Amino acid sequence: MSAIPNAGVTQVAGELIATRRVGAYHHLTLVAPGVAELARPGQFVALAVGGSTSANLLRRCFSIHRVSPSGTYGGTVELVLAAAGPGSTWITELPLHGQVDVVGPLGRPFPLPNEPVACVLVGGGYGSAPLFWLAEHLRERGCHVEMVLGAASEDRLFGAALARRSADGVTVTTDDGSAGTQGWVSDVLPEVIRRTGAAVVYGCGPMGMLRSITEVATREGAVAQVAVEEAMACGIGVCMTCVMPVVGNDGRTRMVRSCVEGPVFRGDRVRWDAFADGYCVVPEDAVGAPPASGGH
Questions:
Q1: Which residues face 227 on adjacent strands?
Q2: What span, in angstroms and rounded, lies between the C-alpha atoms of 172 and 179?
């Protein structure tokens, strides 16, 4: 599999030209020339929030749903987000033609197979947003693509109807059974992998879901490529808030920046055992980890 390296990053004054509600989420379209032309599936953008006089110094990072490099307004970037806090709420309340400072595209994109193979794309909630654009790229390469979409309830699914146009097959799960199969994506994933003979499983969503689909993919002989959801405050590798333990080619664990070295990682390289209750700890065997106390 070959990953397309980040070809460059640009900073532009983005203009909001469309916004609509999609279930529990907001779908925004921003004119962001330069960003749209450079972006690849799996990358993200960092938006300044609160306006020029705001005390909100930290940007908010969002996966790119899809791009249009050319159009009536120029290159556009589409985002899907939930109004979870003051920053994301400010973005969703922008008026049409309002401006927001955009930096991107950031991070490493999803690697694409060198040969046509069957792939399963797994999304949780609005984490599924970047997978539709990825599906287009995979199908252009002759890959058979199936999608598995999961959420707590039907209103928190994103793209179930779109998936039927973007993929060769779609499976939906909800925790409460309000749509599709009641249960988790990891409950149905083994059957989908076996039926399709999938060689690669791509995932985007909550960390617990990414861990479970990595475990399933590994058991079924497939490679997992996952876009992690670590909190990112700058998006460019400066603040170190998004570090997480990942095993390198030499077998040693290092704390790496998910915004630069990621957000896409091979699932079997992530030290999932270091995550608990929404927090990440430094494994004792990680390079540079503080020595264990006692005995001196």
A1: 204, 264
A2: 7
Whether 28 contacts 65, CB under 8 Å: no
**Amino acid in position 101:** D
Q: Looking at the structure, do residues 235 and 263 belong to the same domain, yes or no?
A: yes
Q: How far is CA 22 from CA 81, 201, 220, 248, in A?
A: 10, 26, 34, 39
If residue 140 lies in a helix (H) or strand (E), which one and from where to where?
Answer: helix 131-140
Contact 161, 180 (CB under 8 A): no
Let me know if 44 is exposed, middle or buried by CB neighbors in 10 A (0-12, 13-18, 19+): buried
Please give the structure tokens belonging to residue 42. Answer: 């799996």
The residue among 80, 106, 132 that closes a domain is: 106
Number of domains in the chain: 2
Residue type, position 59, single letter: R
Identify the three-state secondary structure at position 92: helix
pTM over 0.70: yes
- Measured CA to CA, the distance from residue 174 to residue 150 in angstroms comes to 6
Query: What does the block give as tokens for 105?
Result: 């595209």
* Angle of CA points 19, 241, 281, to nearest 5°: 125
Helix (H/G/I), strand (E/B), else coil: 177: coil
Task: State whether 36 and 136 are in the same domain.
Answer: no
Kindly state whether residues 53 and 161 are assigned to the same domain.
no
- Return the higher-pLDDT residue of 288 and 253: 253
Question: CA-to-CA distance for 255 and 246, rounded, in angstroms?
Answer: 6
- Whether residues 125 and 271 share a domain: the answer is yes
Tell me the per-residue pLDDT of 60-75, one tens digit each, with 9 for 90 and over.
899 999 999 876 777 9
pLDDT of residue 94: 93
Query: Using 50, 70 and 90 to split pLDDT, how confident is the model at 292?
Result: low
Could you tell me if 63 and 143 lie in one domain? Answer: no
Q: How far apart are CA 129 and CA 116, in angstroms?
A: 23
